[in-house]
Specification:
Two copies of one chain form a homodimer. With 459 residues, chain A is an alpha/beta fold. Chain A has 14 helices and 16 strands. The first copy, chain A, has an eight-stranded parallel sheet with strand order 6-7-8-9-10-11-12-13. The first copy, chain A, has a four-stranded mixed sheet with strand order 3-2-1-4. The longest helix of chain A is centred in the N-terminal third of the chain and has 17 residues. Chains A, B: It comes from Komagataeibacter saccharivorans.
């Protein structure tokens, strides 16, 4: 992969609340990082272009209707639930799990079943602009390793977790680890195998320690996984304080909230990704902040399975890292943009409340709303930061994980500016989150490598 | 426009709660209505195909991955707000109106400004599968009539309202009717002009009496419009009980809720479309039902500007007609499918409540949830029924307002069934509402005329 230069309109979050947009010349180095970014029509930009011309570095120039923006981070995807995305959400949670989800996940014992599903999932996520993904796989080592290989092959920056779940009380007979020892040995082998994958020297694909959630795991397994995460210096993912049912179950079993229980098991560390977390208290959030762990906010899924909206503003005020998760298939959309728009919408609904039968003063939680600029941050830098990855902003030093948006593509629902008035950066960011569809996504890069699109080779 | 036969998988709501899917042969008569629909592999289907062969009636055959379904009805679109779709939703309502919306609408005084905007809007709505739309235009007769002409030209089944707004208290100086008499005369001329448009003999495009909402209109104007609607036997649209602010304003000015006030002005009739209606009481709903009026439910917009979720289940239990509205640009998506999915999501959030800080028992309004089958009904037959139109189901006697969905189109986020197992009709309906994008919409027909797509001429 060689260095290249790309010039065009760059849209990037500069902080959680501020979006920047302007014509720029960007130098992507051979290591896939942004070596330089200069505003168009500056001497530095001219120098860079002159240097490129002298050195034969390819230059790609985008039109006025194209935009370069950071790729999306999806912090919570159940890879084996891909075939039921957009299905079965009318079912109650128990039926959803027992009738649909567990039997589907169990089929991934067969790598021949898993392969085509994971192949289609990875390419579809890339086509939707996801450049970083965090996957729950299944308990099956071979299929889960296949997922890691497929991510690596297609160039998706990915985190893959072999799921651990051993409690016979809550896990089905045919789909659970047979013992604590079996689960721990499998996880250890999996961590080593992912790290040793040929072509993975840069760590594009990383393993994750993945207890499904406290209710599915025995204390012995949770403790063992905490020890292993420290020994292996491995990221962790699990579900946390998702719903009343789950929250109450954990309190009943452990006497404390999920965060405290996870911390006691050694599972709350920098790089731990806690899916959902709707029912976290301020004390929980302070603990999560102290440990450097992060929340994967899944606003669409939460409407169906959590029964509450994460008080995101409160989490931010506590200094907690937050990114977005599609939670496929508890959430129905593979698009992080759709989920970012839903995060803004859900925060509005938490802010104002939603039941008109209550008086206004007793309805909402004022101060909860977030802006679309904040939605963009969540979808990009927020997620990358949660994972400790230098990506999510098109800034010098960051990996070039980027999307080329074509606002005038056939089939676009992003309206081009009327009479050429381009509007504020915030408006454009909002249009992208609200109205972007697959036709708008022309090219996607991860670490400087083109991973989606056919016409974007530097010219 | 000649008759034709189309055979393929048909997905259609049969009631508010039931979806049907199966291979069928459909006969579309020259008047644009469905003359026959027979299940595939029945003698009646074979007879129909033999008749077509003998008579030279064109037959189009869809593949197994295509689906024929009814087109969508969008009951609430602010046509002049099209250029700011997906923009400015972070602004408070007052700033949104004063800084953005009213100045934008005022520009439609110029038909040269309006023409390209309306042209793009109508073709984009058709491309998103909308076959029936209800538009608020502006107070400008020439531009609003141009909108009606553009709808007619492109074959969109449309309802166009010349907006009436005359109260200097709440309407801006440069954008309001100058007197009750001026507003009434303009509305009367507009009704006649739309009905007299060449090519509109079948009434594909209908005028609507359109008081913006009670706060923008004087009593004299509201009364005059009520009288005119009866004299002209014209449909009516307005906003109703949208937000705390609007609801309280009307109560303060009139002493009653919007519905009662509208009824007193003669504005609550069969075919009246009441946008939003979040704050309707059960008494309001009983009155709306008694008058045969309908609600345009705009779940996405309501999250931003209403501060409450319409208790849709309660409205249905009262026997009120309900359809969906995108409420562009209060809502950000031109897709009725997106809004249908949001209706299901919002109903879940009303059902469970959304603030985790409240105890579960005090959080939600249990019983409020709706299914995706009901979401499909809302998006199709519910909306058509509200307007008294025979469309929205692919049944004999209905207009052939239909969409051809290609589940395997390049750029599709609808997952094809794994191993050819197609799943229940409800699952497929849900996938379409949740995951459909423009790439999936191959062809759109209104009243038997192809209005979108290039490759679907009967072969």
């Amino acid at each position: 992969m060689g260095e290249f230069i790309i010039q065009g309109t760059v849209l990037t979050p500069v902080s959680a609340t501020r979006v920047d947009m302007g014509r720029a010349v960007v130098h992507v180095a051979a290591d896939g990082r942004i070596a330089a970014r200069h505003a168009h029509d500056t001497p530095a930009a001219a120098d860079l272009l002159a240097h490129a011309a002298r050195s034969g570095i390819p230059v790609r120039t985008l039109g006025l209707e194209q935009l370069l923006m950071p790729g999306f981070a999806d912090l919570h995807v159940h890879a084996p639930q891909w075939p039921q995305m957009g299905r079965a959400l009318d079912l109650p949670l128990r039926d959803w799990l027992e009738q649909r989800t567990f039997p589907l996940e169990a089929r991934f014992a067969d790598p021949d079943f898993a392969g085509p599903v994971y192949e289609e999932m990875v390419t579809t996520l890339l086509a939707n602009g996801t450049t970083t993904a965090v996957f729950f796989a299944t308990i099956h080592e071979e299929s889960s390793l296949l997922l890691a290989r497929i991510c690596l092959h297609h160039g998706l920056r990915a985190h893959v977790g072999l799921v651990a779940m051993d409690d016979p009380e809550l896990c089905p007979e045919g789909y659970r680890n047979t013992s604590v020892e079996q689960a721990l040995a499998a996880t250890r082998r999996f961590i080593h195998a992912v790290r040793a994958l040929p072509g993975n020297e840069s760590g594009l694909v990383r393993p994750m320690v993945t207890p499904r959630f406290i209710p599915a795991c025995t204390d012995g397994l949770l403790h063992g996984l905490g020890v292993m995460a420290a020994e292996e210096d491995c990221l962790i993912q699990t579900h946390c304080s998702e719903s009343d049912w789950e929250h109450d179950y954990v309190r009943q079993r452990t006497g404390v909230n999920d965060t405290v229980a996870l911390d006691r098991f050694g599972l709350l560390r920098r790089g731990t990704v806690l899916a959902h977390s709707c029912f976290m208290t301020e004390d929980d959030m302070a603990l999560v902040q102290a440990r450097g762990a992060a929340i994967a906010h899944c606003p669409l899924s939460n409407a169906y399975f959590a029964g509450g909206v994460l008080p995101l503003r409160t989490a931010w005020q506590a200094g907690v890292h937050v990114g977005l998760g599609t939670d496929i298939s508890g959430g129905y959309s593979p698009s992080v943009a759709v989920n970012a728009a839903m995060a803004v919408t859900a925060a509005r609904m938490l802010d104002t409340g939603n039941d008109p039968a209550r008086p206004q003063a007793q309805r909402g939680r004022p101060g909860s709303r977030i802006s679309f600029a904040e939605g963009l941050w969540l979808a990009t830098r927020g997620g990358a930061q949660a994972l400790g990855i230098d990506a999510g902003q098109l800034e010098v030093g960051m990996a070039f994980d980027a999307i080329e948006i074509d606002r005038t593509a056939p089939g676009s629902n992003i309206l081009p500016p009327i009479h050429g008035e381009d509007g504020a950066a915030e408006d454009v960011a909002q249009q992208i989150l609200c109205n972007m569809g697959r036709p708008n996504i022309r090219t996607v890069w991860v670490a400087g490598r083109q991973v989606h699109g056919t016409d974007a080779a530097p010219d």
